[in-house]
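Project standup — Tuesday

K.O.: blocked on the structure for the chain from last sprint. Re-posting the sequence here as requested.
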Amino acid sequence: MTEHVALLHEGRVLVDATGALPAFVDPEDESTLATALALVGADIAVAPTAKLPDGRTVHVVGRRGPAPSGRLVLPGDVGDPVVAEAVARAVTELDPAHTPDARPGWYRPGWFDRVEAWVDTVLAGSGRRRTGPLVPVKMWSISAVARVVTDAGDLWLKAPCEHFRAEARVHPTVAGLFPDLVPTLVAVEEAEGWLLMEPMTGADDADRADGAALEVVRRWATAQLAAVGHVDGLLAGGCRRRGVDETLAGFHRVLAGSIELPLLTHAELTAVRGCAADVELLVRELWSAGVPDTLSHGDLHLGNVAWDGRSLRIFDWTDGCVSHPFLDASHLRHFEEARPQGPDLEATYAEPWRAAYPDADIDRAFVLAHLADLVFQAITFDDIVSSTEPGSRWELGGVVADILRALPAKVAELRGRDLTLLE
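H.V.: unblocked you, prediction finished:
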């Protein structure tokens, strides 16, 4: 798909001789922002990426330094009228009087200056200093991630959106219990949600060592068992309580008023609401199987794992909470179903739980966790989309609707297993 790049300067946009924006083909990897910036010599994104009706996107970028060279025109002079409209809207919304309330800080004037000043302050006296501007790696509605170049190697800066600002509390809390399982923190700005971290190896698909999923379930089961005795501290440290009552309340809230309900057909909505009572019974059955709530990552998959064959780091604690532990294992298994794993992930994960809770119905809990994780994720994504500015909802749009569509079939599958609760 075509990716257009709108380099803005003082209300104008860079175009070629035909009035078209520079463009490239989506590389479909994490290099999209870097490609867009390099194409026009930009430094940062200054507004969210716009999605056009035909699926094309417009990256809205800017320079922190001198004005760009080349032909700069008013948005209305862009050759493609659909692209021109998106650029004009972006220019208008740069005015603080017209900026959407939910727009993240990293798209607002002066944000990078403030972050760099903070980085310089926290590094003062540490033996290293920043030697260049922040290098954006990813900027979207959920977070901004940037590389911090220093004279002693790179650091990483993450800034979550306001909805996930508690990550700046959750990450240090988890690090206090399991310092070797999370990225090493250099500094945290709790009020802003900023996290400055040491680099990790093995975080990308290209350099992640083999056996990552199996290592995760081994280490994470042990950590979750150890965290059972620290639930009060986890809650005090910023982790949300997402137990059975909170989960079911959230599920009914989604069914009653999710902004993605209009994406369902009448038949689909009738089906998911028709199975809601069964969903509630099954979720309650999971929580009564004899396994206690503990630390949960909330979005455990290898995209949030760094493994170099020696060191394992689990990152992105935006969804860190206290909940049923098997939701994490089920979520990881869902993402890894297509990959050959060798030893069964759930069997490996279950082993220490069987030993710790011999009276718990571990097998049934795993079966039920598959459904409960769908419910859990529907709530998570509904909260995200609801807190995102309307123009950026396309980034994660449709996830809640897809999950709701899947629930009736999952309930029917479990009913086919002859669970006594549904007899």
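K.O.: great, moving the ticket to review. The mean pLDDT is 95. Residues 2-98 form a domain with the Nucleoside Triphosphate Pyrophosphohydrolase fold (CATH 3.90.79).
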